[in-house]
Design a protein that fits this description.
By secondary structure, the chain is an alpha/beta fold. Helices cover about 35% and strands about 15% of the residues. The chain is built from nine helices and seven strands; from the N terminus they run αααβααβααββαββαβ. The strands form two sheets. The protein has a five-stranded parallel β-sheet with strand order 1-7-6-2-3. A two-stranded antiparallel ribbon has the order 4-5. Helix 9 links the parallel strand 6 and strand 7.
Length: about 230
């Protein structure tokens, strides 16, 4: 009865979902532009950080195409937390399938400034991070602990969307800080998975990764839902 009154729609095409479909219709789900980066060492996403941050691996679930921009925007701007968690779960399952060689110890979302978080009500990267942890569990792997407060947003910055590569780098160069008072501090040498929604120029992730590499003395890998070619 609830579904009749408030029908669920596909997060990509907007078609009303059948009772057995969740978040995505079968057609859109089958056409998801997967990157397969979890199966490819030195993939294009990893090359973004060459000479900028000494990261272990970089994973993205799908390419940020015109159609597959919609579910990311639903999470980021329209409060669709369930679709963000589901996409995170899918990414977590993919990463967990190749983690025998280099297990993840902790998952750290890119922080959101408190003003933006208060306005939005949540941090979309934290939603994805918790989804990834759930994906590890579903895949039968050891579940890394999510540390949402290990990094802090030290200053309020304007949106990155309309900025070029250099402007993005300057915008976030000093925007983040390590929280030495976090309830759980990863031991030196821990492998941290740094999580954000979209990988474009990598400026935000570069800034956060270098803080974790130096101040947390950790190894760092990166995971995002989408990758912009």
């Amino acid at each position: 009865m609830f579904d009749l009154l408030f029908p669920k729609e596909c997060a990509v095409c907007g078609r009303v979902l059948n009772y057995h479909e969740q978040h995505f219709c079968l057609e859109c789900f089958a056409d998801m532009p997967l990157t397969w980066f979890w199966n490819v060492k030195e993939n294009p996403a990893e090359r973004v950080f060459w000479g900028r941050a000494n990261v272990e691996r970089v994973y993205s679930l799908f390419y940020y195409t015109e159609r597959w921009r919609a579910p990311v925007h639903m999470l980021k701007y329209n409060g669709n937390i369930p679709v963000g968690k589901r996409m995170g779960e899918m990414l977590g399952e993919k990463i967990a399938s190749v983690q025998g060689v280099l297990p993840i110890d902790y998952i750290v979302p890119v922080p959101l400034h408190w003003r933006k978080k208060m306005k939005r009500g949540y941090n979309q990267s934290e939603v994805i991070a918790k989804g990834i942890a759930a994906g590890f569990a579903a895949g039968g792997a050891k579940v890394p602990q999510v540390l949402p407060n290990l990094l802090q947003r030290a200053s309020f910055t304007s949106t990155q969307t309309a900025k070029d590569r250099l402007e993005r780098w300057h915008n976030v160069a000093r925007a983040f800080a390590f929280n030495g008072n976090c309830r759980v501090l990863p031991p030196a040498g821990s492998h941290i998975l740094l999580v954000d929604d979209v990988l474009t120029t990598g400026a935000t992730l570069e800034a956060c990764a270098n803080i974790l590499l130096t101040q947390a003395s950790s190894r760092v890998s990166i995971a995002t839902l989408a990758y912009v070619e």
